[in-house]
Design a protein that fits this description.
single chain; mainly alpha; 10 helices
Length: 177
């Protein structure tokens, strides 16, 4: 049992999953915001059980609070992650591929974040816009959580997936062996 854990390949496979914490931290914003925008008076938001599970059971609340309070320190960690995983040619290709794919997914989540939080201020818009934003945020949240689970499953089994545009860009960024 410990021989397999100490194996370098398994450490690299689990290390490829660590990068997917970046999109999970970004998408928690959508989950928490959709809980506060729930337009239905009865019941809970569709994302609330998953957000509670991620924050309480998986203990991501501490990491999420550090992410929110860090400001520009998180940017330094982000650049270090790029230097140590993606640009490190000594690392295996699947580690560089999954790390670059996680960074690209995290960067792509910045677009709807800016649209929802800067352009369409959820607290100053009307009920119709809030309802549309609620459904869009829940959809993005659930999609990214399922996408990260699928990506981690592929990283552990040492497979590469074919996400449109993202995987192609990750293959170009990670380079060849």
């Amino acid at each position: 049992f410990f021989g397999a854990l100490a194996d370098k390949i398994w450490m690299f496979r689990l290390g490829a999953c660590v990068g997917y914490l970046l999109p999970l931290l970004n998408v928690l914003d959508f989950g928490e915001m959709s809980i506060s925008l729930n337009p239905y008076p009865l019941g809970v938001s569709a994302s609330q059980p998953m957000v509670d599970f991620m924050q309480r059971t998986l203990k991501m609340r501490f990491l999420y609070n550090a992410y929110l309070k860090s400001g520009y320190c998180f940017l330094i960690v982000w650049f270090l992650f790029i230097q140590l995983t993606v640009r490190n040619k000594a690392a295996p290709l699947f580690l560089r591929f999954h790390s670059s794919q996680a960074i690209l997914i995290s960067m792509l989540l910045g677009v709807p974040q800016q649209v929802f939080f800067a352009v369409l201020n959820p607290w100053e818009s009307g009920l119709v816009v809030q309802t549309i934003m609620y459904h869009a945020m829940v959809s993005i949240f659930l999609f990214v959580v399922l996408l990260v689970l699928y990506c981690c499953m592929c990283a552990v089994t040492k497979q590469t997936m074919n996400l449109p545009l993202v995987s192609e860009a990750a293959k170009m960024w990670a380079g060849r062996e």
